[in-house]
Write a structure and sequence with these properties.
- The chain is an alpha+beta fold.
- The chain has helices at about 20-30, 50-55, 95-105, 170-175, 195-205; strands at about 10, 15, 35, 40, 70-75, 75-80, 85-90, 110-115, 135-140, 145-150, 155-160.
- Helix 3 links the parallel strand 7 (about 85-90) and strand 8.
- Helix 1 (about 20-30) runs antiparallel to helix 5 (about 195-205).
- The protein is globular.
Length: about 220
């Protein structure tokens, strides 16, 4: 028998779990705009044209499984500034959950991330944004070890591989160093997962209280 998570109210939303509400606190602390479950999607089979296009972009292993309908899907968060979808899971996803997330990520034209595990302990976050010894991971299709970071130039918060601030979607680093011969970070790295404001946001999210009518503050 699976125990159901307790619904939690915060910022005018009724979240399906306290973990989702804590991520909303994290976003609010950093001033990141978010929308909770703004729309659902049908996990329809991929068309031959879509499979061909994705294969040309380097997506591998697309075959018969992509031709099966997988039901409907309601991702947890849409982040407009980051142009990214976030799916929140308290533990590593099951095989079924992973297949559905992969199908969703292959159907949409924006980035999609699956965040697995509890809000990490800010005391354990390294410069690459990963908590030591914690069961926490941010996945994308075909890759993982993604983390929150902050552009060192414009201040945009974003999710990148190993919290490399040189890869944030604002493109500030690429504009400053078109040839990626940046003297500051040996190419396209500039690890910034332990940015002080990001650490503070993790602390705020873990500290949020929702019992007895409290609002998460």
């Amino acid at each position: 028998m699976k125990i159901a998570a307790i619904e939690t109210r915060y910022a005018g939303c009724r979240f399906r779990s306290r973990l989702e509400a804590r991520w909303a606190v994290f976003f609010d602390h950093l001033g990141i705009r978010w929308e909770y479950e703004p729309e659902g999607f049908e996990l329809a089979p991929l068309s031959e044209e879509r499979i061909s296009m994705l294969s040309g972009l380097g997506y591998y292993g697309l075959g018969d499984e992509e031709r099966v309908h997988l039901g409907s899907y309601l991702p947890d968060f849409w982040l407009p500034q980051q142009e990214a979808w976030l799916e929140i899971k308290g533990t590593e996803p099951s095989e079924r959950d992973w297949k559905r997330f992969v199908r969703f990520s292959l159907l949409v034209d924006h980035r999609a991330f699956l965040v697995a595990g509890n809000i990490p302990d800010p005391r354990t976050i390294d410069s690459a944004g990963h908590p030591y010894g914690a069961d926490f991971e941010i996945h994308t299709y075909g890759d993982h070890h993604y983390a929150w970071t902050r552009c060192l130039r414009c201040g945009l918060y974003d999710i990148t591989f190993d919290a490399r601030s040189a890869r944030t979607r604002c493109g500030c680093h690429r504009k400053a160093y078109p040839g990626i011969s940046a003297p500051c970070c040996n190419g396209d790295k500039c690890y910034n997962g332990d940015d002080l404001d990001i650490i503070a946001a993790y602390t705020a999210a873990r500290s949020a209280r929702f019992e007895h009518g409290e609002s998460g503050a």
